[in-house]
Amino acid sequence: MVKIVIENLGRKELLVNNLSNTVLTHLQENFLDWMHACGAKGRCTTCKMVVIDGMENINELTKAELKYKNAGALLHNERLTCQATINGDITIKVPDSGKLPHLTYSD
Ligand code: FES
């Protein structure tokens, strides 16, 4: 079982155990609203997360992520939640671009 901490949602902690799921799926299975405009197909960047800690516990960049990284749309500390899978604890935050109007963020 590994832990996802979402820093700017009150340091909310999720414990997850199906490590073949993407981070977005973990968030959704825990009833957390997270923007994902293209439906998790790797065709937008709205599902972006900022990785504060645990980047080494995330899979290699996918083809879709590499495309956005090379275009400057994905920074070194950012990943797409619909592309990322994890094998250890991570601490993340919602970037300003992904904040939803009905949620309260702590930054
Ligand atoms: S939801 Fe569009 S890239 Fe992840």
Q: Main β-sheet: number of strands, strand sense, barrel status?
A: 5 strands, mixed
Helix content: 10-25%
Q: Under the CATH scheme, which class?
A: Alpha Beta
CATH architecture: Roll
Hetero ligands: FE2/S2 (inorganic) cluster
Q: Please give the count of helices.
A: 2
Low-confidence stretches: none
* Proportion of strand residues: 15-25%
Radius of gyration: 13 Å
**First CA to last CA: what distance?**
28 Å
What is the mean predicted local confidence, pLDDT?
A: 97
- What gross morphology would you assign? globular
List the secondary-structure elements in sequence, H or E. Answer: EEHEHEE
The name of the CATH superfamily reads Beta-grasp domain
Number of domains: 1
Structural class: alpha+beta
Question: Could you give the count of β-strands?
Answer: 5
Tell me briefly what this model is.
The chain has helices at residues 23-29, 63-70, and strands spanning 2-6, 12-16, 48-53, 78-80, 90-93. The protein is α+β, with helices and mostly antiparallel strands and 107 residues long. The chain has a single domain (2-98), classed as Roll (Ubiquitin-like (UB roll)), CATH 3.10.20.
Kindly describe this structure.
The chain has a five-stranded mixed sheet, with helices on one face. The mean pLDDT is 97. The chain starts with a strand and ends in a 14-residue tail after the last strand. 25% of the residues are buried. The chain has a single domain, classed as Beta-grasp domain (Ubiquitin-like (UB roll), Roll), CATH 3.10.20.30. Strand 1 and strand 2 form a beta hairpin. The chain contains two helices and five strands. The chain has 107 residues and is an alpha+beta fold. The protein binds FE2/S2 (inorganic) cluster. FE2/S2 (inorganic) cluster binds next to loops. The site of FE2/S2 (inorganic) cluster has 13 residues, from loops.
